[in-house]
Write a structure and sequence with these properties.
The complex is a heterodimer of chains A (110) and B (115). With 110 residues, chain A is mainly beta. Chain A is built from no helices and 9 strands. Chain A starts with 8 loop residues before the first strand and ends with a strand. Classes of the chains: A mainly beta (110), B mainly beta (115).
Chain lengths: 110, 115
């Protein structure tokens, strides 16, 4: 019953921008889009989240379409250390349960 | 700052034995989560606590699993008796609930192998 769909895998060259898409066509008005990543053998790591406005922090940028049915996580200058599985998930405002799908396995190539 | 601390990092035990996993959340965080990750099922939420009180344990697989949080700085996940299908990586996470948006911070996980 995943509410988000992501490509299974993606490749990106080191130093280039990595753009990871996420489709969430049934998103509700009070659901936030959250992104986490999991580097091999480590626990998941929070990246960024947003409701409807684009967001940027020291790790990444999040672009949410105007109709909120999809979003893109952007790693502006990917490094080898960004190789990981990236999870896009929705959380109702005020809720705490994270539901992880299969994510996108991003490989950064030298 | 110390992150979420889990122990042990690796546990190998025989079927039928009791297993106890431990977690120390980040100081000041008032929510704690237990997850399990396997290749087949991915990352699943087992149970979470707010202010040391269990809020949702619907993800706990069966009565063999139990979790406690006796105080704000410690939680345990116990499996008794353990079975080979319990082999997985168990993650603990914590967050600070204040407002309506909050991220979870995950520990390094405990890799459990039940033979």
């Amino acid at each position: 019953d995943a509410k988000t769909t992501q490509p299974t895998s993606m490749d990106c060259a080191e130093g280039r921008a990595a753009n990871l898409p996420c489709n969430h066509s049934t998103i509700s008005g009070n659901e936030y889009v959250y992104w986490y990543r999991q580097i091999h053998s480590q626990g998941p790591q929070y990246i960024i989240h947003g409701l409807k406005n684009n967001e940027t922090n020291e790790m990444a940028s999040l672009i949410i379409t105007e109709d909120r049915k999809s979003s893109t996580l952007i790693l502006p200058h990917a490094t080898l250390r960004d190789t990981a599985v990236y999870y896009c998930t929705l959380i109702i405002q005020g809720a705490q349960k994270l539901v992880f799908g299969q994510g996108t396995r991003l490989t950064i190539n030298p | 700052d110390a992150g979420v601390i889990q122990s042990p990092r690796h546990e190998v035990t025989e079927m039928g034995q009791e297993v106890t996993l431990r977690c120390k959340p980040i100081s000041g965080h008032n929510s704690l989560f237990w997850y399990r990750q396997t290749m087949m099922r991915g990352l699943e939420l087992l149970i979470y606590f707010n202010n040391n009180v269990p809020i949702d344990d619907s993800g706990m697989p069966e009565d063999r699993f139990s979790a406690k949080m006796p105080n704000a700085s410690f939680s345990t996940l116990k499996i008794q008796p353990s079975e080979p299908r319990d082999s997985a990586v168990y993650f603990c996470a914590s967050s600070r609930v204040a407002g309506v948006e909050y991220e979870q911070y995950f520990g390094p996980g405990t890799r459990l192998t039940v033979t």
